[in-house]
Amino acid sequence: MSYDNEKDVFSRGCLQVYTGNGKGKTTAAIGLTVRALGAGMKVFFGQFVKSGEYSEITILASLKNLVLRQYGTEGFIMGHPGASDIEAASRGVRDAMDALAGGNFGLVVLDEVNVAYSLGMISLPEILAIVSARGNRTELVMTGRGAPPELLEAADLVTEMREVKHYFRTGLKARKGIES
């Protein structure tokens, strides 16, 4: 299917998926968020599995027309997610559905939602319900490793970040302003 960009630029939202084991999925979603805000769009940005004050959260929280929510608990999930992790992810699914149903947002970003899925915190039917809830004029971005094949099939755009080389492997820790 082809699109007339002049006609369709704000009349059709797409589903974008950023996945893979490489660095840059959240960074790409934040870049698109800044672009959308610069164009006057209202943005919902929900972060699954993450909580806390990362450098990007500090700046994003200060921007107008952006609703920012985190659906993670303290610390990394080691092994199986606990009840509080699952409840936080369920809250994220409910908020995402509300954001999509309301039609108030031009862009909805669900950062690390694929990780929440791959950890068993949310189900494939929930992922597909989120996709189905998207209106024609809402762009939906879903990020994180482990995107299910059904999501990749439904997407209009899939970008797989692939690690070729990473300085973490040499022992370099996360640096404020670059990784955190």
Output the keywords.
Rossmann fold, six-stranded parallel beta sheet, 180 residues, 7 helices, alpha/beta, disordered N terminus
Number of domains: 1
How are the strands of the largest sheet arranged? 3-2-4-5-1-6
- What structural class do the secondary elements suggest? alpha/beta
First-residue to last-residue Cα separation: 40 Å
The CATH architecture? 3-Layer(aba) Sandwich
Indicate the low-confidence ranges by residue numbers.
1-9
The largest sheet, given as strand count, sense and whether it forms a barrel, is: 6 strands, parallel
- CATH topology annotation: Rossmann fold
Strand elements, count = 6
* Gyration radius over CA: 16 Å
Mean pLDDT: 89
Shape: globular
Q: Give the proportion of residues in helices.
A: 25-40%
CATH class descriptor: Alpha Beta
Q: Order of helices and strands, N to C?
A: HEHEHEHEHHEHE
> Could you tell me the strand content as a percent range?
15-25%
Number of helices: 7
CATH superfamily: P-loop containing nucleotide triphosphate hydrolases
Can you give a write-up of this model?
With 180 residues, the protein is an alpha/beta fold. The chain has a single domain (12-162), classed as Rossmann fold, CATH 3.40.50.300. 37% of the residues lie in helices and 17% in strands. The chain has a 6-stranded parallel beta sheet with strand order 3-2-4-5-1-6, with helices on both faces. Helix 4 (83-102) packs parallel to helix 6. The chain starts with a helix and ends in a 20-residue tail after the last strand. The model is unreliable at 1-9 (pLDDT under 50).
